[in-house]
Amino acid sequence: MQALEAIAARRSYRGRFAPVPVPREHLKIILQAGLDAPSGCNKQTTSLIAVDDPALMRCLHAVIQPPVGETAPAMICVLTRRLIAYRDRCFAVQDYAAAIENMLLAAVALGYQSCWYEGHITDTDRIGEKMAGILGVPPEYELVCFLPIGIPLEQATMPKKRAFEDRAWFNGFPAAPDGKKP
């Protein structure tokens, strides 16, 4: 699959997955795609843990509430270290966001679907910390996201997107209907 086809085919898949293991060689390709992402000042703040052991998956899913991605045969846990990259700037969020997008595209290119689960993982209920504890993650890392990986059993649907011309322009922001720039 070409890069632009993978971008067009990627969806946030929240459905059920086929009970088919994801081969390790495919997980390695997906992980490498994440590691190949750009990183602010090359600090490489993102690290990854692929999980495909069914018993370990059950332990992780026992702490993920509400339950999401529980039928996936594999998951990738995204870790970050919040390092100062330039002056007082930390690019950890940008680093792991780029890694996640690369992995989502690689998963689609290999015939899988996934979803970026971050919000309730990093919320006040501290699910990411519980998952990190299960995985033996050192305290200088934060588990910020997980991606369930598997073959979708349902058709991934495309959300309604605003029109191109409502969100992308050439040579400046468009003028308001009265001809004035906002």
CATH superfamily: NADH Oxidase
Helicity level: 25-40%
Number of helices: 6
Order of helices and strands: HHEHEHHEH
Query: Segments where pLDDT lies below 50 for 5+ residues?
Result: none
Broad shape: globular
Characterize the structure shown.
The protein has 182 residues and is of the alpha+beta class. α2 packs antiparallel against α4. It has a single domain, classed as NADH Oxidase, CATH 3.40.109. Strands 1-2-3 form a three-stranded antiparallel sheet, with helices on both faces. It contains six helices and three strands. The protein has helices spanning 3-9, 24-35, 54-63, 92-109, 127-135, 164-167; strands spanning 46-51, 74-80, 142-149. It is globular.
Condensed summary:
The protein has 182 residues and is of the alpha+beta class. It contains 6 helices and 3 strands.
